[in-house]
Every structure is written in structure tokens, then in C-alpha cells.
Specification:
Strand content: 25-35%
Radius of gyration: 15 Å
Number of helices: 6
Order of helices and strands: EHEEHEHEHHEH
Length: 158
């Protein structure tokens, strides 16, 4: 079974390999990871600078992972606008969305109160046409990776 997912993170692209340095993605990355012996998933990572062309990629996918670095307060408004723009697209109505709050347990990360106030994820989820899951993680340490792989497996069970 070969399945597609859009918007990953370099750690996911290097699943079960050495953890890479965390530098922003410029351009795209593409990799296939094995979820089980018989199931693999292709992850296409598109950096934030590629957002003008995201629609040409995500419209053909069934599952979308949207990563937010909650340790980078300078990008929060941009991330919120990009997320809302993506979710508002009519062609996104039937997609499964996984919002990853990356670096949650880093010292300078936003508190849960800040995340709630800035992103208003509960409002987004309650008004969205999509199925949305939110997952805290720190992919540099591997925290949350098992839950992400579980979501990938369940979302791609058809």
C-alpha cells in the first residue's frame, strides 16, 4: 500500500534514522517511511517559504500534517494565517488534518494558555469541515513520534 501525506518535518522524513539538525526547510523533501511491513507512507515536506504553491500539492492528498514551531513566536501569526487559509479552501473539506505543535517541551516554548489564545485551535476544530487532530510533540527528541505514526496508520487505513 502506497499512500501520500503532505507537510511533514525532516525528522519524519528520516524516520528511524539519526535525528537531523533543526533548520527550516527551504524547498521540498520527499521520503517514504514504512509504518508496518506491508504499509508505507510517502511524506512530502513543503517549507513555509513554499506556501504560495501549497495548494497545488495539498489538493491531491488525503492527509495533511501542519507543523507549528511553538518555540518560534516570530512565526505564530504567519502560521495561523497559513493554517486558516488552507482550511478555508473548498478542496480541503474532506481531508484529515494533523496539527503538530512542535517543541512543546522546550524551555522557551509557548505555554498552553498562549497556544490557546493565539491559535484558538478549539474554535478552529469546532468550526472546521475537516477532521482535525492536534498533537503535541518535540521531534528533535522523538516525543510524540509514536502518536504521529499511529495517526498516519489510522488515517491511511483504506
Amino acid at each position: 500500500m502506497f499512500l501520500d501525506v503532505t507537510f511533514g518535518k525532516e525528522v519524519l522524513l528520516n524516520f528511524r534514522k539519526e535525528i537531523p539538525s533543526t533548520i527550516p526547510t527551504v524547498g521540498t523533501n520527499l521520503a517514504t517511511i514504512n509504518i508496518t511491513r506491508r504499509k508505507s507512507v510517502t511524506i512530502r515536506e513543503l517549507g513555509g517559504t513554499m506556501s504560495p504553491i501549497w495548494p497545488s500539492y495539498y489538493k491531491s492528498e488525503n492527509n495533511i500534517m501542519f507543523m507549528i514551531d511553538i518555540n518560534d513566536r516570530t512565526q505564530t501569526s504567519s502560521a495561523t494565517c497559513l493554517l486558516l487559509s488552507m482550511l478555508a479552501d473548498d478542496e480541503m473539506e474532506s481531508k484529515n488534518i494533523l496539527i503538530l505543535l512542535n517543541k512543546k517541551n522546550v524551555n522557551n516554548a509557548m505555554s498552553q494558555g498562549e497556544v490557546d489564545a493565539i491559535f484558538r485551535l478549539s474554535d478552529i476544530i469546532s468550526n472546521a469541515k475537516q477532521t482535525i487532530t492536534v498533537q503535541d510533540c518535540n521531534l528533535a527528541t522523538g516525543d510524540g513520534l509514536i502518536d504521529i505514526v499511529s495517526w498516519l496508520s489510522q488515517s491511511n487505513s483504506d
